[in-house]
Amino acid sequence: MNHTIRIVLIEDDDILRMGYESLLTDIEDFTVVNSYASYDLARKHLDADQPDVILLDIQMPGTNGLQALPFIKKTLPNAHIIILTVFDSPELVFEALTMGAGGYLTKNSSAAKIIDAVREVSTGGGAMSTNVARIVMHSFQKNLNSPLTKRETEILDRIANGQTKPQIANDLFIDQETVRSHVKNIYIKLDVNSKAEAIKTAKEKRFI
Amino acid sequence: MNHTIRIVLIEDDDILRMGYESLLTDIEDFTVVNSYASYDLARKHLDADQPDVILLDIQMPGTNGLQALPFIKKTLPNAHIIILTVFDSPELVFEALTMGAGGYLTKNSSAAKIIDAVREVSTGGGAMSTNVARIVMHSFQKNLNSPLTKRETEILDRIANGQTKPQIANDLFIDQETVRSHVKNIYIKLDVNSKAEAIKTAKEKRFI
DNA sequence: TAAAATATCCCCCAAAAAGGGGGATGGCTT
DNA sequence: AAGCCATCCCCCTTTTTGGGGGATATTTTA
């Protein structure tokens, strides 16, 4: 199959945009159908462009990349979007990920990585620069030195999922009073005295 | 700096293990200090091996990779661990991520990807095969067609974090009764009638 | 512009849950 | 033998919840 990957660039920096365009155009099965300096400029053309992959800058004049993402997904549900950014703060990364980008590259990514990423997302894969991967993996990592026992962790986890003590007791086939005892111990260990505080503390310290 | 990256392989498949060893040994700044068919065999040697990077298979006889991970991290806190697996189920991926691996590769990864991954994790970066990246990114992606309004989502999110209505009211500078109204509407929209159900449903449908 | 959705607030009520205190018991590990 | 762990029991008050019935002003959308 000699299917050409149709690419649209949305990047406000002229130099970078031309750089990407030149880089990607040189790839045999890539076609850069259009490139724009902002989403506001791109918007009315996207439908006609019918891109398979959109390289989308976050910081842009007017509608920024993250704001544009939902609109793009509505207009072109089948397009794969790769976020480009110089920032790599956890907050921005997670916000971008929740918006449903197929890839997230920091701008220091090498040419080879960018080309790989385009190919990956166009086939439904995921692409992440190593900075982003590190941030994401760190967010998953649990604290291995939790003061909580297995049972306590199990129970606090259920509390964090909104279960009441009676429900938890029922699910775990133990008495409500047992759950209560565990909760008491959890509160002592975390030095808190309410559900909300326990959840907050436990999440901050990655006990759950 | 001509620092050699010391690598240990723990992989029960003889062919694969030798394949990796041959592949990695050929890299100038890589040294495969040892390779083992199981964690149980590797355990007593790891301290002497002092690896920078450990390639760790998940499915193994005896202690499997995920079970071994906490022990390895305790023995060698500074070693970077790359999980190798043929499976790529979300459950396994997330479990491995919570254990604190620095990389997660599926076994269909190309030689180049493996070499890249070793280099990445040895410098504290993250490495993820595209399959894994896809799974992880999908887990973050929120449902863009949530029936909940911004305010309702905000409130449900706080409920999911264990906050009570009075606390939420206080934080948002609104009346408890207002919070109550929103909660009522949330329950109607989600067709539930308790906190726990609302959280469960909203998480399943990725509204929060 | 008119209708719908949204965000805000008010009252009634009973049932449920939470949290603080005080225990006990058997099992397992160190 | 001492500690931790998981299990269960009782006292008690306060807080929270959820179901019902509204109102009103702003904002969005059709």
CATH architecture of the largest domain in chain A: 3-Layer(aba) Sandwich
Give the overall average pLDDT of chain A.
92
Which chain pair shows the most residues in contact?
Answer: A-B, 45 and 45 residues
Per CATH, what is the topology of the largest domain in chain A?
Answer: Rossmann fold
Oligomer: homodimer
Report helical residue fraction of chain A: 40-55%
- Approximate shape of chain A: elongated
What would you report as the Rg of chain A, rounded to the nearest angstrom?
A: 23 Å
Reading the helices and strands of chain A in chain order gives: EHEHEHEHEHEHHHHH
Total strand segments of chain A = 6
Number of H/I helices of chain A: 10
* CATH hierarchy class name of the largest domain in chain A: Alpha Beta
Structural class of chain A: alpha/beta
* Fourth-tier CATH superfamily name of the largest domain in chain A: Response regulator
The total tally of domains of chain A equals 2
Strands of the widest sheet of chain A, in order across it, are 2-1-3-4-5-6
Cα(first) to Cα(last) distance of chain A is: 47 Å
Percentage of β-strand residues of chain A? 5-15%
**Biggest β-sheet of chain A, characterized?**
6 strands, parallel
